[in-house]
Amino acid sequence: MASCRGGRSQDPASRVTDERTRSWWGWGHEDAPIDQTSFDHILDGLGRALDVDGFAETQPPSPGSIELRSPRIGLPRSLTEFCSNDHLDRLSHAYGKSYVDVMRASRGDVPNPPDLVAYPRNDQQIEELFRFCEAERVALVPYGGGSSVVGGVEPPGGDRYTAAITVDMRHFDRILEVETISQSLHVEAGVFGPALEAGLKPHGLTLRHFPQSFEFSTVGGWIATRAGGHAASGSTRIDDFVSAVRMLTPRGVLETRRVPSSGAGPGPERLVLGSEGTLGVITDAWLRVQPIPRFRAGAIVHFADGDRATDAVRGLGQSGLSPSNCRLLSPLEALLTGVGDGNTAELLLGFESADHPVHGHLDRALQICDTGHATWDASADEARPSTPEGRWRRWFLQAPYLRDRLVLRGLIVETFETAVSWDRLARLQETVLSAVERAITETGSRGIVTWRLNYIYPDGAAPYYTVVALGTRGHEIEQWRRIKEAASAAIHDAGGTITHHHAVGRDHSTWLLRERGALWQEVLAGVKRVLDPAWILNPGVLIPEATARQSPVSGDFL
Parallel, antiparallel, or unpaired: how do β-strands 252-255 and 175-179 relate? Predict the structure, then answer.
């Protein structure tokens, strides 16, 4: 057992940071090179699909050229030690990383930045923020890596609050304990993905949770948003790895006990999971970790018939084989990502284990696929750049950077996802694709929709969609909103969930109400009134503004 308890250690094993400069308007690092070959391939494919001969590129403005609204509050003496009103701090915390966020930021449209950005280093400073915000009616927005794609970290608008403070948790960045006997990790909420894995590697362990935002998202953010990770089946989301969690609230500390399982009433950690900063500030958690896999086997499977491909994936999901990778790409998505030629659906199939060889699992999986009249190419190393799997992996990691470059060329690029039972999948696919294509046409634009099955379960799958459409200068947000509304309505009407792993944020809050029902919304609002009676924490996220207006604040209403 290794421990880093007892004060803020400077031991490199307990703290790993990245000093490179993050982009203030888009994804990732400012100096990150994109894969130009992949980007040229995508531009060429989009040009043919959209009948466009080239896309003119604009450039984002310099941070100093953007005028921000003056802070509506001064820097209180009690908060000067850890709060900032610096121009770049405020600018870089104004948005998350959704299409709308990147589009607005890249054009210098930042009308509602946080008034201050707090960088607390301990519980006491967070508690000071609670007291100040309650007394002054200031909104407080918890912030991990800022990678939200659903409006989850944007300060609230309107005049219900005198100001807004974003609380950046980057200094809660320690691995507190690696407990090897129980294969458990005690970690603070501000630890980013690469730092977490670097701290576990010397122990031969991994969390094995690699969302697309892995490099720029934190443990607290994963928990708050119920993030989806690396595995396509089995333990697909952070939920499965959380054994205990600690959250500060305006009413006190909510902390759960670390046990492998419990039947002691409704689990409070389940209330923290997916709370999206509306109930409190997550400070640390115990996570279940596992040995690093040593054995791997994989293949890419080609299906000429889409229905048979889906049947084969369902067979894999119900087989008990638990593949680590089982992502079915539509022919168009396979073409654009360089995995296929556009004539067949492509299944990226993989197995891994720390304990035993997995080639037998792959052989059985290919037998299941063979019932769909498939062909395949086995690969000993699915990450090798020259293989289709390697090309997919490279595209997957580059996709957010490529998205930003497409936005600068005037394209609307949106992704959305859901989960649905197998018996409803075909209808959902048909409903969503036709609704989105119709919405694109109704906006006067041209576009494409690609899809993949991203996660599989015995009872259903999680489809993931990508939309690329031509934007009309000055009307992009209206076009996006119409497409987003059509997609959300189609998902809801076809029996899917409004989000499988992208979280709720502001973009999905009204749809959450439709999905869960008014009674659950009342229960959630009731919990918030107990833990956050002044309703200061991330208002407008999860719970619609209309509900907030009914919440008593100091005997009054918002």
Answer: unpaired
Pair 274, 226: CB distance under 8 Å: yes
- Give the number of residues written for the chain: 558
Percent of the chain whose predicted confidence (pLDDT) is above 90: 82
| 175-259+269-291 matches 294-407 in fold | no
Looking at residue 263, what is its pLDDT? 94
Structure tokens at 262: 């419990």
The pLDDT value recorded for residue 12 is 36
3-state DSSP assignment of residue 363: helix
Q: Tell me what pLDDT residue 223 has.
A: 98
Of 9-13, 241-245, 403-407, 470-474, the range with the lowest mean pLDDT is 9-13
- State the fold for domain 410-503: GMP Synthetase; Chain A, domain 3 (3.30.300)
Residue 6, pLDDT score: 31
What distance in Å separates the CA atoms of residue 425 and residue 430, rounded to the nearest whole number?
Answer: 9
Angle at 208 between CA 355 and CA 361, to 5 degrees: 45
- The DSSP annotation for 141-172 comes to EEESS---SSS-SSPP-SSSSSEEEEEE-TT-
Distance CA(531)–CA(537), nearest Å, equals 10
Contact 482, 471 (CB under 8 A): no
What angle, rounded to 10 degrees, do the helices at 509-516 and 476-493 form? 10
Residue pair 143/152 in contact (Cβ under 8 Å)? The answer is: no
Amino acid 352 reads E
Mean pLDDT of 334-351: 93
The pLDDT of residue 396 is: 86
Residue 522: DSSP 8-state: H
Q: How far apart are the first and last CA of the chain?
A: 50
User: Any idea which fold 175-259+269-291 has?
Assistant: 3.30.465
Q: CA-to-CA distance for 113 and 235, rounded, in angstroms?
A: 37
Give the pLDDT band of residue 558 (cuts 50, 70, 90): very low
Query: Does the pLDDT value for residue 347 go beyond 80?
Result: yes
DSSP one-letter code for 7: S
Sequence-separated (6 or more) residues with CB below 8 Å from residue 425: 310, 460, 461, 463
Q: Where are the domains of the chain?
A: 175-259+269-291, 294-407, 410-503, 509-557
**Does residue 246 contact residue 253 with C-beta atoms inside 8 Å?**
yes
**Rounded CA separation 72/69 (Å):** 8
Q: How many CB atoms lie within 10 A of CB 201?
A: 12
Q: Cite the DSSP H helix spans in 294-358.
A: 306-317, 331-336
For tokens 């915000």, the residue is 133
What does DSSP say about strands 460-470 and 447-457: parallel, antiparallel, or unpaired?
antiparallel
Distance between CA atoms of residues 288 and 235, nearest Å: 11
pTM (two decimals): 0.93
The amino acid at residue 398 is: Q
CA atoms in the 13 A half-sphere facing the CB of 416: 28
Q: Measured between alpha carbons, how far is 349 from 300 in angstroms, rounded to an integer?
A: 6
Given the candidates 3.30.379.10, 3.40.50.10490, 3.40.50.170, 3.30.70.3450, the CATH classification of the domain at 294-407 is: 3.30.70.3450
**What is the CB-side half-sphere exposure of residue 352 using CA atoms within 13 A?**
19
